[in-house]
Amino acid sequence: MGKTRRKTGTTTPRKSRSPRPVRKLKFATDWTYSAAPESTDHVRLESRYGLFIDGKFSEPRSGRYFATISPSTEKKIADVADASTADVGRAVKAARRAFDGTWSKMKPSERGKYIFRIARIIQERAREFAVVESMDGGKPIRESRDVDIPLAAGHFFYYAGWADKLPYAFPCRDPKPVGVAGQIIPWNFPLLMAAWKIAPALATGNTVVLKPAETTPLTALKLAEVIQEADLPPGVVNIITGAGETGAALVNHPDVDKIAFTGSTEVGKIIQKAIAGSKKKFTLELGGKAANIVFEDAAIDQAVEGIVNGIFFNQGHVCCAGSRLFVQESVADDVVRRLKDRMETLIVGDPLDKNTDIGAINSKPQLEKIREYIQIGQDEGAEIYQSSCPLPAKGYWCRPTLFTKASQSHRIVQEEIFGPVLAVQTFRTVEEVIEKANNTPYGLSGGVWTDKGAKIFKITGKLRAGVVWANTFNMFDPSSPFGGYKESGVGREGGLHGLLPYVNLS
Amino acid sequence: MSSLQTLSMTATPSAGVPDLSRVPCVDAVGIEERCSRFQTRSIKKESKVAGLKHVLSMIDLTTLEGQDTPGKVRQLCYKAQHLHDALPRIPHVAAVCVYPTLVRVAHKELEGSGIKVASVATAFPSGQASKKVKITDTKFAVSEGADEVDMVISRGEFHRGEYTYVFDEIAEVKQACGAAHLKVILETGELSTLDNVRRASVLAMHAGADFIKTSTGKIEPAATLQVALVMLQAIRDFYYETGRMVGMKPAGGISRAKLALHYLVMLRETLGQQWMTPRWYRFGASRLANDVLMQIVKEQTGRYQSLDYFSKD
């Protein structure tokens, strides 16, 4: 106790227009929280993982493995197989066999039972999943424990319920499964994205080949264990690991009927080109640059909480992150001051510590990309503010960062940074903020903060974004559809809408 | 602390009733979410012991019963100075809080101890008396030796929108306090909404409150994390606006050490270092101290002792 935690951050001096003395709250307190690490001794991890094909783990034909490391310690956690084109072929073949042989013919209520079973096992093993997710991906245990894992189980529960009710989702349209789904998921919500992809596919009678991201394969491989435990027929779910080439092989495989991809807009475009002219169905969930709009009549303190949650949740590695903040000019100073105070209380560090608010940046390349954007923002003339929290010596870390005086033509406003970096602009009128909010190639999400119900309806209807939150941000529910406009993607996942990409209708 | 120093540190009212239309509104759902975050902070080991000692030092050890006697108050005053002599380095509480008629007893017992004598006044707990009676009540408590006065606002007038009345009444009681510190009880359990809590906080601070306090302890709900957060945010904004620090006292219903630590976490993350002393933060409680002591003993021995090992006064 008694140690002060303040280190010098790159804080800019407060410029005050009025002659008032500088008043500042001090969040470097004598009383601090002791380390509260979540125990890891209950976690079972292999030192090496093969490919999960046809119900069992097997060696990759390539014979190659690559390491998955913990971004908070930079230490290797395990080796995972690098699937070659031949391995992708094996997985697709197994999925096709399972589709034709068992899964598409199974009584829908039976399919539902299997999916319910997966959901329950995830719940039972939630603690282990949460720890592995935080070790492998760097996200704080608070989030993996309270958000990722419960939501992943929730998606399986939700879609399990649809399995025998599909005629009610598509009345008189005789929904039929599509076939084999190739699914490629990102590193920001590894298990949750796997659940988003696998659950609706299975509920509608499809079989799956899933490729997790190369930096975060472990929870998907643990999910393979769950699928074994749930006794799914072999080949219904296949999980293969690898990098971009493996993904490309999956996308280009002729016997894949549907591609579901979540990731960058750049790769999304490559996929769309690759499958152009083929009969493959596809959904793409891509980047975003969401506008979070705070009006002067908003509950300001709660809006600040929502801003923090919008941009610093999961280190800002969120496609729907509220990375552009628009504040009405009359409350701009108030909001920014409160935001800076709140940022001072955020604890950055060990993802496994229960008190950590912001964990490690997922990978070294991602950290370099974020740093590059922070430099760009300063070069462009925006005013930077970073919290003064101490950072661990090892691992990939980034302080919560704020840019004020940002403008529409700044790259930090236009481009997706995918890190804990917020660009702040001010506005005067409703018309102005709607125009600015929509002035982006993206359109995934948005947020509006006001105490006036009528204003909420007026504005949310005009924002061209797939999801718009009012007086909250980054809230997810399995029953709510999610997806983007413009370069943020094609198709919807979640809810009833999430069934559609996995069925053929008559 | 000499009376001169005390005098120089008490608040002065603003020139007039603040413009309550400029007070930001409160979103109850958002407040709930933020409070749940405080409750998931994991406070263990040294951090827990240090936090618990903070809590002890911030307690206003309270007895406010019709059956209070001089003997009971004397016992309480001893307890205030000797919380648990079996444990080394345990701080004393911040104050002993009694009815005006028992202030003299407490004052005599606590002289030179560094522990303040707080007295409720203004027709506590209902406040249903004329302003004249309330002023007399206050002056009596101060003349008997109270260092701090805990008043209740007129909730009826507040609900009727008679903000000027409420403001003036607080300001007059403040004047009657002289050198004594004034804690203004909002009785949040009767204010219905968090918006009202926020407005009443602003009103009380502008009217000259040294502390704002949640509850009398006689009404349910008494203190909750939600109202406490709204009040801390009001204190923060008042500080930014005027440069004056106002203290905070949640009271009533905080009988568990764990809950008290949640309040401390909230304080740390809302107002920070400057407020984390008994000068600016108090817990109004009668049973909290023993639960905190029990937790401290548990941290040292690894075992929970029966409550029979802790004195009840």
**Beta-strand level of the residues of chain A, as a percent range?**
15-25%
Specify Rg of chain A, calculated over alpha carbons: 23 Å
CATH topology of chain B: TIM Barrel
Shape of chain B: globular
Number of domains of chain B: 1
What do these coordinates show?
The complex is a heterodimer of chains A (506) and B (313). Chain A is an alpha/beta fold and 506 residues long. Chain A has two domains: 48-286 and 485-504, 3-Layer(aba) Sandwich (Aldehyde Dehydrogenase, Chain A, domain 1); 291-470, Aldehyde Dehydrogenase, Chain A, domain 2 (3-Layer(aba) Sandwich), CATH 3.40.309. Chain A is built from 15 helices and 20 strands. Chain A has a seven-stranded mixed beta sheet with strand order 14-15-16-13-12-17-18, sandwiched between helices. In chain A, α1 (85-101) crosses α8. In chain A, 57% of the residues are buried. Mean pLDDT of chain A is 95; it is low at 1-16. By secondary structure, chain B is α/β, with parallel strands linked by helices. Chain B has a single domain (25-301), classed as Aldolase class I (TIM Barrel). Chain B contains twelve helices and eight strands. An eight-stranded parallel beta sheet of chain B has the order 7-6-5-4-3-2-1-8. In chain B, α10 links the parallel β6 (211-213) and β7. In chain B, α9 packs parallel to α10 and α10 (225-242) runs parallel beside α11. The radius of gyration of chain B is 19 Å and the shape is globular. Chain B starts with a helix and ends in a 12-residue tail after the last helix. Residues 1-8 of chain B have low confidence and may be disordered. Chain A binds chain B through residues 1, 20-21, 23, 25-34, 36, 142, 146, 297-303, 305-306, 337, 341, 345, 354-355, 451, 471-472, and chain B through 24-27, 29-31, 33-34, 40-48, 50-51, 54, 233, 236, 239-240, 243, 264, 268-269, 271-274, 276.
